[in-house]
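Treating backbone geometry as a discrete language has practical consequences that deserve illustration. Part of our work consisted of pairing the sequence of a single chain with a tokenised description of its backbone. We regard such an encoding as a compact summary of how the chain folds. The amino acid sequence and the backbone structure tokens for this protein are reproduced below.
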Amino acid sequence: MCEYCGCQALATIRDLTSEHDAVVNLIGAVRAAHHDGDAPGMAAVTRDIAAVLRPHTEVEERGLFPFMAAEFPEHIAILEAEHRQIDAVLGEAADGTPADPAWPQRLLDTLGRLRAHILKEQDGVFPAALAQLSGEEWEAVEAVRARVGTALPG
């Protein structure tokens, strides 16, 4: 990931970026399972992606985004809507492999949107947050992280 703006020096942004990296790696695993015709494998990895995104999204939507919304209301609204759309498709695999034969392609399309979403956050939101948020606001974001934890090991 980038190092040009200095946002990786903040633990909060570094953790969010690590979660993005984990999700991108898992997207690769979904694509490999799809290539192998392994819909149950796709569903299993989809549940792993959802597990990483649950606390990640909570940190963004309950911590970071509220502080960014006053300055960038349209951008934040779009990101939150994308969260809902992505979560809906990931949620289709929550209880197993979806029976809908169109689900694998719907999932791949959604994962493509998720990758684009990640870039919007890393190239736009995170550097903007670095410039905009005060120390107290970062502490509030960190409090959300402390409350929700992370799905990543370590």
In short: Residues 11 and 64 are 13 Å apart (CA to CA). The chain has a mean pLDDT of 93. Helices lie at 11-35, 39-69, 73-91, 103-132, 135-148.
